[in-house]
Design a protein that fits this description.
The protein is an alpha+beta fold. It has a domain of 68 residues: Arylamine N-acetyltransferase fold, CATH 3.30.2140.10.
């Protein structure tokens, strides 16, 4: 239930002024507005703070305090908006395969599928720099149509799994796999607990950040930062935690003073 969901505050947060009918156009516009205005970040994990997935906690962090979050937080918030508008949708887990093969990957990613007259579409607002900013068609057969500009996404069938395949910078990457079984809310609590606490989780080991703003994409993994704008990429390293704090202010829309004392296992000099 989303009775405590402040829909108007959410719309203000994502600067959405579109229509509110459960259509493909509205879904596309809502997803784009969400990904442009709410960044991806795992800083609370590194600060040792619990990640709460009840709608009050998620909207307090991502909406009222203008923070970002990771997939479970983004998915929870976006699902509340879909429910309020009247979309028919399901919640799913996936095995993220950016860092490990599927045979070793737990179900630690959350995404949604939405049912529309045009078909079924995957929406995934919380996959960081490789997130699709448009609904991806779910194929009945082997493969969905290639969509988007950069990066481009499609779903392909691989046995019992559908795989989200991304093309960017001339490379093809399989980012997650799912059997598209509807999952229970407790499954996301379980996955989030692993993601935010297990020592083998990438989110416990490293900083992972992404923000979209117009044609600018800012991403960071540990100290390595990339800023893409107008077809050009600027790369640099953060010298210290104070530069990380400045990056958040300049490109992510919030200040986090305590980040100047964060401990990051993947950065030995920041331990």
């Amino acid at each position: 239930m989303t009775d405590s969901f402040n829909f108007d505050a959410y719309l203000n947060r994502i600067q959405y002024r579109g229509n509110f009918s459960p259509t493909l156009d509205a879904l596309s516009d809502l997803l784009l507005a969400h990904t442009r205005n709410i960044p991806f970040e795992n800083l609370d994990v590194l600060l040792g703070r619990p990640i709460k997935l009840d709608i009050d906690s998620v909207q307090d962090k991502l909406v009222h305090h203008k923070r970002g979050g990771y997939c479970f937080e983004h998915g929870t918030l976006f699902a509340a908006a879909l429910e309020r508008i009247g979309f028919q949708f399901e919640r799913h887990t996936a095995r993220a395969t950016l860092f490990v093969p599927r045979s070793e990957a737990p179900r630690t990613h959350m995404f949604l599928t939405v049912f529309l007259p045009e078909g079924r579409f995957a929406v995934d607002p919380g996959f960081g720099a490789l997130a699709a900013r448009f609904p991806v068609p779910v194929p009945d057969g082997d493969e969905s149509e290639l969509q988007g500009d950069v990066p481009s996404h499609r779903l392909v069938q691989d046995g019992i799994y559908k795989v989200l395949r991304v093309q960017t910078d001339g490379k093809t990457t399989d980012v997650w796999s799912s059997n598209f079984e509807p999952d229970n809310l407790v499954d996301f609590v379980l996955g989030s607990h692993y993601t935010s606490t297990h020592p083998n989780s990438p989110f416990v080991q490293r900083i992972i950040l992404r923000s979209f703003s117009g044609d600018k994409i800012v991403s960071a993994v540990n100290r390595d930062v990339k800023i893409r704008s107008n077809g050009e990429t600027q790369s640099f390293q953060l010298a210290d935690r104070s530069e990380l704090r400045a990056l958040l202010v300049d490109h992510f829309g919030f200040d986090l003073p305590e980040i100047e004392h964060v401990r990051v296992p993947g950065i030995p000099e920041w331990l």
